[in-house]
Recover the amino acids of this structure.
């Protein structure tokens, strides 16, 4: 029973969802109203996990045959390994998504519920079934779904939009291509086997690395906007400069060397960059 629960949990892509919770939680800290209502704060994070996990689980359901052909996923995901029945995975995916939407709607507002439902549909249907198999820009457009957590959390807390969560959104949105394309570079043969038009396959490594550098510079540039919109201070300024400089250095190094090892290092640092940047936003925002 416990093992089955673990398999279903893997459908939600928990590692990715940790970053989603961090980015959504950061928006809640900046907004501030739920800091005095910790149960509501945690309830927003639970709803974010359920709806984001639903989108990820549906993605795995629809891509179960593709995942079986890719070395990176065949031995790690429960559906290709036959650890979960596909019908059970579909019911679980829809069930947790509906639960998350209802939490947003009943405990907060239906604006956030509709936003979360749109995100699930966008990622699981439009991105998974249309964008990913048809365009090398799939991860750029599809990155909208992965970046929306701060906006959704802010809307749940306030019932309206604001500038701060959209800057957080833009940081994640611009961060996604260099993060994911670095992964695609050293798993290129997997995507060839799966017949997916990822950037390194369609445009080649050189073009992909050029775009990685461009997007890295853009995300670092946009990160400084928070100094003004969120009124952050010197802690964030120094951290954003140091983290951004290292992110840019890694992207240029990957471009110069063109090796799998350099791409892996860039991929690893990209995760650290986003985690640390948002952690510093929380620290500075609460200082």
């Amino acid at each position: 029973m416990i093992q089955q629960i673990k398999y279903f949990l893997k459908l939600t892509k928990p590692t990715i969802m940790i970053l989603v919770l961090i980015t959504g939680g950061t928006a809640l800290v900046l907004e501030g109203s739920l800091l005095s209502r910790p149960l509501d704060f945690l309830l927003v994070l639970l709803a974010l996990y359920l709806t984001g996990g639903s989108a990820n689980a549906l993605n795995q359901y629809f891509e179960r045959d593709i995942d079986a052909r890719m070395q990176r996923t065949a031995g790690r995901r429960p559906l290709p390994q036959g650890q979960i029945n596909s019908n059970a995975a579909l019911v679980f995916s829809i069930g947790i998504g509906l639960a998350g939407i209802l939490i947003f709607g009943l405990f907060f507002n239906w604006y956030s519920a509709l936003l979360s439902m749109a995100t699930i549909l966008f990622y699981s249907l439009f991105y998974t079934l249309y964008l990913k198999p048809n365009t090398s820009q799939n991860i750029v457009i599809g990155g909208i779904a992965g970046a929306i957590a701060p906006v959704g959390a802010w809307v749940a807390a306030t019932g309206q939009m604001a500038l701060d969560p959209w800057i957080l959104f833009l940081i994640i949105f611009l961060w996604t291509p260099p993060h994911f394309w670095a992964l695609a570079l050293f798993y290129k043969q997997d995507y060839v086997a799966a017949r997916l038009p990822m950037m390194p396959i369609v445009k080649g490594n050189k073009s992909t690395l050029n775009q990685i550098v461009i997007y890295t510079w853009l995300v670092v540039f946009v990160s400084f906007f928070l100094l003004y919109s969120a009124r952050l201070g010197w802690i964030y300024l120094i951290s954003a400069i140091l983290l951004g400089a290292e992110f840019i250095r890694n992207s240029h190094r990957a471009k110069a060397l063109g090796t799998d090892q350099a791409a892996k290092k860039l991929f690893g640092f990209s995760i650290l960059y986003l985690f640390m940047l948002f952690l510093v936003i929380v620290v500075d925002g609460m200082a």
